Structure formats: structure tokens, C-alpha cells
Automatic annotation (TrEMBL):
Residues 195-283 form the GerMN domain. Keywords: Lipoprotein. It comes from Amycolatopsis vancoresmycina DSM 44592. It comes from the Bacteria. This is Lipoprotein.
Length: 562
């Protein structure tokens, strides 16, 4: 069994919201909770296992876990507001060097740390062996109790999933004029307190993984005035303060941010107040369907059915025909390609002079040869709302191609050291909102945020997703703003869906697929298309059997605009 080490300094997550908003509700408890004592005669190993299992049970001030401590520990234990998550299967064994006192034992908890919740209630993936030592002592009444409780809380994956619910909290992206989901986790019960706990997260700002990539519209001096509450008619009231002087356009964005975030925890009408008056004049109450279509320009038009590269040419997924111009008629020896969101432009990587080089231009016409080339270029990806094309040169240099006022494509380097120091990048793909990129590095799946500072662009906070379970990744695309589809060389799980934070991974049905699956494309409200050894296959949901794509071709690589 792997050793399991829990360090007092690990980043973990709050179990309570800010007390001024929903005091005492994080764990769904009341001060009058009655917590039973451990079973009489419980042995030290079982005592420590039960202590771990009680971490997330309802009870004021971790009362259920506190019941396993001695009297001094119950009175003095002040665990940090953090949570480390371990695999369900873990062991408790006696330490090989027991204390000389027969009435004292040291129990080692051994298992695997799969991640933690940081101080923003965001999941931070991990997979490391660890060990925690817990000292227990026989009390005067003959019962064993913990006398040296750990400074941090930790719980099993199943207990975490049972007690926490994921909520995509929304933050605004100025560069793409849309809202970006920031996946966070809140205590699920009591359900009536969920809106208040989500509002806590909104006011506290984006998680570390998105810091700098999005804007916090509810930052200081804005705060929640009093508790978020429901009226007798079901209306949910969100009372804010600190908005004096905030213009109407920002007030509308704040309303949208709140409604988009609360849609996952309430279906009620939402009344948003600023110092007692409607946040937006003449619009006190809000529902989801009243919001403008933020990010509509980032969506793929229904008439754009996608393309594929096959045999050095670009063809349509809609009818299999070659696209007009040199990209389709064999004028270029195309390795990979990407179509702009509006469908009007095409970027292709072509073989030439023993290497590859990049061309960009209007679809159906000659494509301008850029200065970018090398031994390898990743398949191009269009940065949403900017017209930029990104690719990785020789797996190490992330470049963005920008169209200057004279109509020439200029190569600018991206500050991507945080990402590229993890290894060679073989795939890079923008999320549909432009706030993140997904990358394949040494067969591993990574996600990083896109941070703009003046004229410079950086890739920050790289996160390795499902580092133990997901290997031999060959391609990736975004099926949603906070969800990815990756394909691997694995015959048992060739296609998987992964949350953007890596907290969850689900395998698609592998029926009909012939290894090796080597390509994938996905987009919201579009079927997923994968390429295997025999051709193209489509499916829309987990568990669905893959169906042959209407115009499948062997060795084709599919791609939707973006």
C-alpha cells in the first residue's frame, strides 16, 4: 500500500462560508446537535478509521469527528479551514515503533491523496502517497480516544462527493465579452443555504486557476449586505451594498453574473438589491431567460458543419467534398488545419522543405505563407474574439499570429514557460471563451489560464488533470466551457470526458472503436467526432454507442471551427 503523508501546510479548502453571510450553515448543523459517543470497546485502528469517516458528517464545529477525541482534544482542537481528499481505500496500521506506554498507541493512516480544496473552494488535483500519524490513548474508563488530532481535515472521495456539490461560478471575461465558469465546491446541505454559499464565492473572487484571466465584478467595496434569503412567495433576495457610483452597464453584468451562478442551486426568481433598491433600475427581479446572449459571437453557426484533414487535403465533414482553393485541391500538402469561429478563414500547417510551415488566409483562396515554421507545429487553434491563431513550434515555443493593419500576419511569442517547462507540447486548444487552453504534454492532459497584461499574453497556473488515471493522451478538445474530451492510446478507455479541474473523469463507450483513436473534435451542442484506425465516429453523450460519421474516411482528422 502506498504511503499517505498529510502535511500541515498543504493547500486545502474551507468548510464554512464567510460568517457574516450564512453563519453556521456550511455544514448544515445547529448548535443543539447531539453526537453519539464511539461504540464501547472500539479498538485504536477502528477508532481512527471512524474519525476519518466522521470528518464531513453534520455537526456544529466538526462535532461528529470531535467525538473521537479525548476531553482535552475536544475542547482544544482547532482544525484549519481546509480539506484534503483521499481515496476511499485506505489503511490504518500500528506504528512499528510504538510508545513505551502500553496505554498509548500510534496509528498510521496510509492511502493516496487525490487532491484538495484550496482556500477558494476550488479543487486542486494531486496523486501522491502520504501517511498521517495519529496518537491514541486509553482513557481512565478504558476507552481509546485520539489525543493528538491532526491540524487539517481530510475525508474520503465518496464522503466528499456525498457532502459537496460542484457549482460553476461565473466570472466576466472582458476580452471575449462573455462569462467563464469557475468550478467550485460548496457544502450541499442544508439546501436552503446553497445560494448564500455560492454568493460567498462570487464576492471572494475567482479561484487561483483563473486569477488574471477573468474580472471580479463583485470585488471590493461591494459586499453582501445581509443574509441571502427566500421570501414567502419563493423569490430569492440577494442584498448587496457598496455599489454607489457603479454605472448601469456594470450593474447589468453583475446581475448576469449572479443569475448565471445561482442557476445551479435555485430555480426561483432572483431579486437583486443594492442598498435596498433594485440593482438595475426598473428591473428588480431576474430569471435566466432574461439575460442577453453573452458570448453569442463565440458560438459556431449552425451552417458550419466542421472540416477534416485527410490525404493532405481539407474536406467538409458535411458532405466529404474538398474545400475550395489550394487547401482542398492539393495545392498544399496539409498536415493539420483550423477554421475560424465565423468560418471565413483557414489556418493550415503544410509539409515543405523537410519540415512544416504555417499558412493563414480566407477559406477558398490562396493562404498567405507566414514566417512561422519548424520541425513540428501543433494543429492551429483560433483565440476567441481576437482573430489570433496560436500554435506550438517544435513542442516548446508557443506563438500567436496577429494580423497587423497592413494585412500581414506577425508572429508574437507567448509567455508560456509555466506550461512548457512541464515538457513538450504536442496539442494546444483554446476553450470556447478564450480564458483557458488545454494542452497535451508527454501524453498527459494539462489546462492553463490565459492572462493578458497590456500587449503581453501569458499561460499561467498549469494543472495536470487525472495524472494517475489518464495516460497516453493524443488529442483533446473542449466539449463545454468547463469540460474536455480527450482521446488516448488506451484500448479500454479510448475516449474520456474530464472536468476542467480534473476532479472527475468518465469514460465513453468504447464499442465500435478500433485502436488507436488519434483525433477528436467537440463543441457545445455538437456531436463529438473521433477518429480511429478505420475512420470517423460520432456520439453525443456518455454511454452512447459510436456511430459511423456520414462521410467517414480512413486517416481523417476532424475539427470544428475554433
Amino acid at each position: 500500500m502506498l504511503c499517505f503523508v498529510l502535511l500541515a501546510g498543504c493547500a486545502n479548502v474551507p468548510l464554512e462560508s464567510q460568517p457574516q453571510v450564512v453563519p453556521g450553515e456550511r455544514q448544515g448543523q445547529s448548535s443543539g446537535d447531539v453526537v453519539p459517543e464511539p461504540p464501547p470497546g472500539i479498538d485504536p485502528l477502528s477508532l481512527v478509521r471512524a474519525f476519518v469517516g466522521a470528518t464531513l458528517k453534520p455537526g456544529q464545529n466538526n462535532a461528529a469527528a470531535r467525538a473521537y477525541l479525548d476531553e482535552q482534544g475536544r475542547a482544544g482542537w482547532r482544525p484549519s479551514r481546509s480539506l484534503t481528499i483521499i481515496q476511499d481505500t485506505f489503511g490504518t496500521v500500528y506504528d512499528t515503533n510504538p510508545p513505551p506506554d502500553p496505554n498509548t498507541q500510534v496509528v498510521n493512516v496510509r492511502g493516496v491523496d487525490i487532491g484538495s480544496l484550496d482556500q477558494n473552494s476550488a479543487f486542486v488535483p494531486d496523486h501522491s502517497p502520504a501517511m498521517l500519524q495519529v496518537k491514541v490513548r486509553k482513557q481512565a474508563n478504558g476507552q481509546w480516544r485520539i489525543v493528538d488530532p491532526p491540524p487539517d481535515l481530510y475525508a474520503t472521495e465518496s464522503d466528499f462527493s456525498e457532502n459537496y456539490t460542484p457549482v460553476p461560478v461565473s466570472f466576466y471575461s472582458e476580452s471575449s465579452n462573455t462569462f467563464v465558469p469557475d468550478r467550485r465546491y460548496v457544502v450541499a446541505k442544508p439546501q436552503s443555504g446553497l445560494p448564500g454559499r455560492v454568493m460567498d464565492l462570487l464576492v471572494s473572487g475567482p479561484s487561483t486557476s483563473l486569477a488574471g484571466a477573468v474580472k471580479n465584478l463583485l470585488g471590493e467595496p461591494i459586499e453582501i449586505d445581509t443574509n441571502v434569503k427566500s421570501l414567502d412567495d419563493g423569490t430569492l433576495v440577494v442584498p448587496l451594498t457598496g455599489l454607489t457610483g457603479v454605472p448601469d452597464d456594470i450593474r447589468n453584468l453583475i446581475a448576469a453574473q449572479i443569475v448565471l451562478s445561482l442557476q445551479y442551486v435555485t430555480s426561483a426568481r432572483i431579486r437583486i438589491l443594492a442598498d435596498g433598491a433594485p440593482l438595475v433600475p426598473n428591473h428588480p427581479d431576474w430569471r435566466l431567460n432574461e439575460l442577453p446572449a453573452y458570448g453569442a459571437s463565440l458560438s459556431i453557426g449552425q451552417e458550419l458543419l466542421g472540416l477534416m484533414t485527410v490525404g493532405g487535403r481539407v474536406r467538409s465533414l458535411g458532405d466529404g467534398a474538398p474545400v475550395p482553393g489550394p487547401a482542398g485541391n492539393g495545392g498544399y500538402d496539409v498536415v493539420s488545419a483550423a477554421q475560424s469561429i465565423d468560418g471565413k478563414r483557414l489556418a493550415v500547417v503544410e509539409r515543405a522543405d523537410g519540415g512544416v510551415r504555417l499558412r493563414i488566409g480566407d477559406l477558398g483562396h490562396d493562404l498567405a505563407l507566414t514566417t512561422l515554421g519548424g520541425s513540428s507545429l501543433t494543429r492551429p487553434t483560433w483565440r476567441p474574439a481576437t482573430g489570433e491563431v496560436w500554435t506550438v513550434v517544435d513542442e516548446l515555443t508557443v506563438c500567436r499570429m496577429v494580423l497587423d493593419p497592413n494585412g500581414h500576419w506577425t508572429a508574437l511569442q507567448v509567455n508560456a514557460t509555466d506550461l512548457t517547462q512541464q515538457g513538450g507540447v504536442t496539442e494546444l486548444r483554446f476553450s470556447r471563451d478564450g480564458a483557458r487552453v488545454a494542452a497535451v504534454i508527454k501524453g498527459e492532459l494539462w489546462v492553463a489560464s490565459v492572462v493578458v497584461n497590456g500587449d503581453s499574453v501569458s499561460l499561467r497556473e498549469p494543472r495536470h488533470l487525472q495524472q494517475h488515471e489518464l495516460e497516453d493522451v493524443v488529442d483533446v478538445d473542449w466539449v463545454a466551457q468547463d469540460g474536455l474530451v480527450a482521446v488516448t492510446k488506451s484500448p479500454s478507455q479510448p475516449v474520456v470526458r474530464v472536468t476542467v479541474d480534473g476532479q472527475r473523469m468518465d469514460a465513453f463507450n468504447s464499442s465500435n472503436l478500433t485502436p488507436t483513436v488519434h483525433g477528436v473534435t467537440a463543441a457545445p451542442s455538437r456531436p463529438i467526432v473521433v477518429a480511429d484506425a478505420n475512420g470517423l465516429w460520432t456520439a453525443s453523450v456518455l454511454g452512447e454507442v459510436w456511430r459511423p460519421q456520414s462521410h467517414t474516411m480512413k486517416d481523417a482528422d476532424p475539427f470544428y471551427p475554433g
